[in-house]
């Protein structure tokens, strides 16, 4: 798949809506990886601007990621209950919670205008997170020559991805930062780790598997390839690149004690997501209870609380998404980071080759990279 797209390195930058930028995506693509922009948190006009800005900065392929979550159904009782539970936290900053919660992000499945934009602009790659669009949408995008990727967190989801005609699976392990790509939040989540999931899917799927979650350096990429992945997707590794939109508090937290204590929580947005330990996660552990509204309705409350706290100089309620490999984050320009990752990967593969190959050039004990 990467060869077909003309991408020389098995390195994908995660889309990271709200953090990734056209400048980041272009820098990664220009350096030989596959850069990405996440347009799930913007409207059609904003998405168009991001695609145009990325195209102005690179002639290479890049990935445009969309959210395909289920349309949230109005539930005023749940929303009122959740706002009441959050009221004491707002009061700490002399603020009131919103009177009503909004659906702040529209699902790609509910936006024919966004589909038209993608069919018109035809980015090289489009990826889906939180599920899949309708079959006719997938057909239209494939007929437009767009390579399609979709996130899967377990075998059942991966089978649905393959059966839908998607070109590749992003195997997202529980270590990954940001939102879990689970299709149905009410279903049982086996919470498979990246390497277990990658190996499982590589053994049974007929389409390329891209490992994602906790991978921060060349050693992690090499390990993913050894397990049968075609490439690795890194997100947290790129957060502190100067090309991202991460604010100073986010960058500081990434290199602090919070990086060693990431937490998986649904309280911030309404969907399970891995975040740097903060006052929001502490509140949940201290007994903040209540039925959480659906994604992204709950996120409206989370963003409002963060905004109220920031006014008082408190940044502990920010949605600073990060994976379990956060302590390994490096502060480098994106192109330089990709170059370092490539050198590390090459060195690790050379070690693998020397360890698993005899002096005569034959594999030892039957081992060898796929």
Automatic annotation (TrEMBL):
UniProtKB keywords: Detoxification, Flavoprotein, FMN, Monooxygenase, Oxidoreductase
Question: Which InterPro entries is this protein grouped with?
Answer: Aldolase_TIM, NMO
Record-linked CDD domains: NPD_like
Q: Which reaction does it catalyse?
A: 3 propionate 3-nitronate + 3 O2 + H2O = 3 3-oxopropanoate + 2 nitrate + nitrite + H2O2 + 3 H(+)
**Family annotation (Pfam families):** NMO
UniProt superkingdom: Bacteria
Give the Gene Ontology MF terms in alphabetical order: monooxygenase activity
Q: Which residues form a coiled coil?
A: none
Q: Which cofactor does it need?
A: FMN
- Listed Gene3D superfamilies: Aldolase class I (3.20.20.70)
Reply yes or no: does the keyword Oxidoreductase apply: yes
Q: Which family does it belong to?
A: Belongs to the nitronate monooxygenase family. NMO class I subfamily.
Q: What is this protein called?
A: Propionate 3-nitronate monooxygenase
């Amino acid at each position: 798949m990467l060869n077909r797209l003309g991408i020389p390195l098995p390195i994908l930058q995660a889309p990271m809506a709200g953090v990734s930028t056209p400048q980041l995506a272009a820098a990664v693509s220009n350096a030989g990886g596959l850069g990405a922009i996440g347009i799930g948190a913007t409207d059609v006009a904003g998405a168009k601007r991001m695609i145009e800005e990325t195209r102005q900065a690179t002639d290479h392929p890049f990935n445009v990621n969309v959210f395909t979550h289920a349309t949230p159904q109005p539930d005023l009782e749940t929303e009122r209950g959740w706002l009441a539970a959050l009221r004491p936290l707002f009061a700490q900053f002399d603020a009131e919670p919103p009177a009503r919660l909004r659906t702040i992000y529209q699902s790609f499945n509910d936006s024919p205008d966004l589909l038209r934009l993608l069919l018109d602009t035809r980015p090289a790659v489009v990826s889906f997170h939180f599920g899949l669009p309708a079959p006719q949408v997938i057909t239209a995008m494939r007929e437009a020559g767009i390579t399609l990727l979709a996130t899967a967190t377990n075998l059942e989801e991966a089978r649905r991805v393959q059966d839908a005609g998607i070109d590749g699976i992003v195997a997202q392990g529980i270590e990954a930062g940001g939102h879990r790509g689970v299709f149905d939040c009410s279903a049982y989540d086996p919470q498979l780790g990246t390497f277990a999931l990658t190996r499982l899917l590589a053994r049974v799927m007929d389409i390329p598997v891209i490992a994602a979650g906790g991978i921060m350096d060349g050693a992690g990429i090499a390990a993913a390839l050894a397990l049968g992945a075609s490439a690795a997707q890194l997100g947290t590794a790129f957060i502190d690149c100067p090309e991202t939109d991460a604010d100073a508090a986010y960058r500081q937290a990434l290199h602090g004690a919070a990086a060693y204590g990431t937490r998986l929580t649904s309280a911030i947005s309404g969907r399970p997501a891995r975040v740097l330990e903060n006052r929001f996660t502490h509140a949940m552990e201290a007994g903040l209870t209540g039925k959480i509204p659906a994604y992204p309705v709950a996120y409206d409350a989370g963003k409002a609380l963060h905004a109220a706290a920031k006014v008082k100089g408190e940044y502990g309620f920010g949605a600073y998404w990060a994976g379990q490999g956060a302590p390994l984050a490096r502060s480098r320009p994106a192109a330089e980071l990709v170059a370092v990752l490539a050198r590390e990967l090459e060195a690790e593969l050379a070690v693998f080759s020397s360890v698993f190959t005899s002096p005569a050039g034959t594999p030892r004990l039957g081992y060898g990279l796929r």
